[in-house]
Amino acid sequence: MRYRVASPSEYLAITGSGIDDIKLAKKALVWPFQRCRRFDVSPVNYTFEVQAMSSEKLPFILPAVFTIGPRVDDENALLLYAKLVSPHDKHSNHVNELVQGIIEGETRVLAASMTMEEIFKGTKEFKKEVFDKVQLELNLFGLLIYNANVKQLVDVRGHEYFSYLGQKTQMEAANQAKIDTAEAKKKGDIGAKLREAQTAQNAAEIDAETKIISTQRQGEGKKGEIKVKTELKIFENQREGDVLESDTALATKKAECDKEAQLAKVEAKNTVDIRDAELKTKLERKNAETQTEKLRANLLSKATVDYEIKVQEANWDLYKNQRVADADLYGKRQVAEAQKASAEANAFVRQQVADSELYAKKKEAEGIIAIAEAEGLYLNTLMKQLGGNYGAVRDYMMIKNNMFQEIAKINAQAIHGLQPKISLWSQGNNEKELNGGAMKDIAGVYSMLPPLLKTVHEQTGMLPPAWLGSIQDANDA
């Protein structure tokens, strides 16, 4: 009997007599026919570089560090770990390959269902889903992920997706900076022009108000002058009336004295004269009042009309100058905006055309490279399958690409239109006589000469030499 005690980061796994399955404890008495083994429950860091492929068939490398250890707060999970994993060293290849296989399998399956853009932009969600799916598999072994750190995605050599994406982002940032600079310059130019226009408008308004005030002051001065002249004229007329009244009174007194002197003689005549003088006085007074009012009305009307004319002229000059200034400002603003819009449109069109041409050339080059690589791989595989026989590979490629049909077609087109003439010659019984003789072969050669010479003559127009013979038909011709 022995008394065993485990360290703080260890557990005791006891099996044997009196224990049905396995017993876990921090300290225990180990009886005879029982076995006790210590196992460490501290977590371990596992570093991997998982090579996966997205749904667009784009490969990438996912560096990851997982901190994994047994689940010490769950007795069933701890029993699973003691049974399945603890017999092996935590740093052994067996445990490492077990954990790596689970992580790589789940990561590849998850990456295959997502696009590269979704993986790149949703790193947090991608990490969470990998964490959850891997944890489900590790539960079968009583393991728990204490921490998972997914590093930045890395390009696979020959598939530089992220480097191209970074270049694209840099170009977009540079272009946006250029656009912002141009926009700021545009706002500055427009603001300066607006300030100049507002300054000119304010100056024109001040000048117009000054002219209006000056015209009003001149009208008020003329009105005062006319009023003084009118009152003076009225006073003079009143004085003339008073003088006339005094003269009339004096004449009346004189008439009374004469009346007293001449009494009856001139009484009637004086009465008539007095009455006539009174009537004349009233008439002249009325005429004087009428002329005064008429003169006052004429002068007042003339001053009012002059004032209104001056005001209307000043208003018209102000309105005309303001309209001219507004029209000039609007025309200059429209011309500047049209020139700027045209320049920006031309620059944007040239930039878009250059970008599209560059992108098309790049994609065309990538397509040619991909086709060349595929054809090279295909030819290498075909060469291996045919045992390195170059002639067999060549014949196979010619058959596959219909080269023999093309050659036959070209040959047929070459002789198309020819009209060959075929002549049959027969030697009759002479051939039978020579069948068994020694001259058989020589006779056969000579029997071929006439048709051969005739055919050459018909096709080319050439005659055989005189020592070889002549053709009867040709000589007759």
From TrEMBL:
Membrane topology annotation: Lipid-anchor
Subcellular location: Cell membrane; Membrane, Caveola
Domain (Band): residue spans on this chain: 22-185
Family: Belongs to the band 7/mec-2 family. Flotillin subfamily.
Keyword field: Cell membrane, Coiled coil, Membrane
Any GO CC annotation of this UniProt entry: caveola
Ranges in coiled-coil conformation: none
Keyword Membrane set for record: yes
Name used for this protein in its record: Flotillin-like
InterPro entries the record matches: Band_7 (IPR001107), Band_7/SPFH_dom_sf (IPR036013), Flotillin_fam (IPR027705)
